[in-house]
Write a structure and sequence with these properties.
By secondary structure, the protein is mainly alpha-helical. It is built from eleven helices and two strands; from the N terminus they run ααααααααββααα. It is elongated, with a radius of gyration of 26 Å. Pfam families: EIID-AGA (PF03613).
Length: 282
């Protein structure tokens, strides 16, 4: 669609379209501006409008009214997940480019697309980013830091920057290249496959970390003829880590099924440990 030195596209009005440099500015200004300019009233709106200032200067330098209309279009309420949601930025960029070049795209369409897509992509993005990727990376980082290693927090920071920035930039460019067709990866069977794959990876990593970091052992002794045998040894022979698994599943049940807060869940676990110690189970 675009090259650094010269845009591939030239409009009916003689204007040249977006170059790679222009697209990178759009993406970068959104990436650094969506949160820095966020407000309780309009959330990410100002960041989106701010990202279009270079665009406005490029295409509407001699058209103050056109520049005003562009920035007003993108000053309406907007809020979505900022990494996955950049596909909207890419789609809108291709539409705004067509408008600026005198194409047939209606001026109202970019705003309609933003309004229509920001909710569904916020839901999908939060599920993937906040629900799977961030907890998984934090779990790995905490396991590395458990022995006092500074590599734990560094792992999280670096890995999140690589994944977050890479995902954001890739989806932005894909959205610009494909237009509305870019949404095919987020609907129907494709979206289910992506979510299933990410969920499986997240479950495997969570299970591995739980097995390696959670240790629950009982001190109960059971009679075996004339001798006493440790119940823990019997459990280890049948199902190693059974008590740790029960603890994890109980915690999951409280957080996910009962919708308890993290603080309430921890207090319940503390009380449970005190009671089990009092009855000499732990």
């Amino acid at each position: 669609m675009a090259k650094d030195s010269q845009s591939v596209r030239v409009g009916a009005n003689g204007k040249q379209g977006l170059t790679n440099s222009d697209l990178n500015k759009l993406w970068y200004r959104w990436q650094v501006g969506w949160f820095a300019t966020s407000s309780y009233e309009k959330l990410e709106t100002h960041g989106f409008a701010w990202s279009y200032i270079p665009f406005a200067e490029k295409f509407y330098a001699d058209d103050p009214e056109g520049k005003k209309e562009l920035l007003l279009r993108h000053s309406q309420f907007y809020n979505t997940e900022p990494q996955v949601g950049t596909i909207i930025n890419g789609i809108v960029a291709s539409m705004e480019e067509d408008i600026a070049l005198g194409g047939e795209t209606p001026n109202e369409l970019p705003v309609s697309i933003k309004t229509t897509l920001m909710g569904p992509l916020a839901s999908l993005g939060d599920s993937v980013i906040q629900g799977i990727i961030v907890p998984t990376l934090l779990s790995i980082g905490m396991s590395i830091a458990a022995d006092g290693s500074a590599a734990g927090p560094l792992f999280y920071i670096v890995s999140w920057l690589i994944i977050g920035m890479g995902l954001s930039y890739g989806l932005f460019r894909y959205g610009y290249k494909m237009g509305l067709n870019a949404l095919d990866i987020f609907v129907g069977e494709n979206s289910r496959r992506i979510m299933d794959a990410i969920n499986v990876v997240g479950i495997i990593i969570t299970g591995t970390l739980a097995a390696s970091m959670i240790s629950v052992k009982t001190i109960v002794q059971i009679p075996m003829g004339s001798e006493m045998s440790a119940l823990q040894d019997t459990l280890n022979g049948v199902f190693p880590g059974l008590l740790a698994l029960i603890t994890v599943l109980f915690t999951y049940w409280m957080l996910n099924k009962k919708q308890y807060t993290a603080t309430k869940t921890m207090l319940i676990l503390v009380v449970a440990v005190i009671v089990l110690c009092a009855v000499t189970f732990l």
